[in-house]
Amino acid sequence: MNDAVAITLVGVFGITGSLLMLFSAIAMFRVRDALSRINVFSPATGLGMPLIVAAAYVYDLHAEGFSWGSLLMAVVAVLCLIIVSSVGSNTLSRASVLSGQPVYRKTVPNRLASPPAGAVDEDPDAPKEPEEPTGRS
Amino acid sequence: MIIVVSICSIILAAAVIVGLVRVLTAKDLGSRAVISDLMYFSAIGMLTMFGITVSSSIVLDAIFLSSMVGILATIALSRILTRGLR
């Protein structure tokens, strides 16, 4: 791989990934609540960071030549970023709902705040009514 | 290579600065947790670009390890949000 190809690939991957991170940061201003912010945060970790890993791998390929260790490390890093950040986003959104962070008032229908009409929403863990005392002594 | 990597670093630094401004102006704690996560990943990107600049050979190792332990910060923040409850 000659210099021009390496620089072009690093540039395309790196600048696209960095721009995705920047656009994600700007999008944090345009949405109004924590759940939507978690939603617009996914492009940064799902596509931006893997592109930056690709840029780093192309640089490694250019500087030190091909090796299976580097390839394995890059593939595992991409898989980790996708899987781990999905699990992390899920945990964070669950925590933000459970801790009562405000939801934007124009979010309708908000099924998290009020169940849809006709839904059976009984709490299986609710304490049962005390039974009538029978004639047991 | 230097020019390309500098452009990437500048864009990522801009992302961190925008995130900092948003953390200062955010009202609720959940938004702050999300934005600090975004800043963490931007910092990993800046570390990678710095490694490419100085021709380091551990660029992939650094990004590999930091992508694996990145979930710890997120889970710690979510546990803090719920006051330790799951």
Automatic annotation (TrEMBL), chain A:
<feature type="compositionally biased region" description="Basic and acidic residues">
    <location>
        <begin position="125"/>
        <end position="137"/>
    </location>
</feature>
<keyword id="KW-1133">Transmembrane helix</keyword>
<keyword id="KW-0472">Membrane</keyword>
<keyword id="KW-0812">Transmembrane</keyword>
<feature type="transmembrane region" description="Helical">
    <location>
        <begin position="6"/>
        <end position="28"/>
    </location>
</feature>
<dbReference type="Pfam" id="PF03334">
    <property type="entry name" value="PhaG_MnhG_YufB"/>
</dbReference>
<comment type="similarity">
    <text>Belongs to the CPA3 antiporters (TC 2.A.63) subunit G family.</text>
</comment>
<feature type="transmembrane region" description="Helical">
    <location>
        <begin position="65"/>
        <end position="84"/>
    </location>
</feature>
<protein>
    <recommendedName>
        <fullName>Cation:proton antiporter</fullName>
    </recommendedName>
</protein>
<feature type="region of interest" description="Disordered">
    <location>
        <begin position="108"/>
        <end position="137"/>
    </location>
</feature>
<feature type="transmembrane region" description="Helical">
    <location>
        <begin position="40"/>
        <end position="59"/>
    </location>
</feature>
<dbReference type="InterPro" id="IPR005133">
    <property type="entry name" value="PhaG_MnhG_YufB"/>
</dbReference>
UniProtKB/TrEMBL annotation, chain B:
<feature type="transmembrane region" description="Helical">
    <location>
        <begin position="6"/>
        <end position="26"/>
    </location>
</feature>
<feature type="transmembrane region" description="Helical">
    <location>
        <begin position="62"/>
        <end position="81"/>
    </location>
</feature>
<protein>
    <recommendedName>
        <fullName>Multicomponent Na+:H+ antiporter subunit F</fullName>
    </recommendedName>
</protein>
<keyword id="KW-1133">Transmembrane helix</keyword>
<keyword id="KW-0472">Membrane</keyword>
<feature type="transmembrane region" description="Helical">
    <location>
        <begin position="38"/>
        <end position="56"/>
    </location>
</feature>
<keyword id="KW-0812">Transmembrane</keyword>
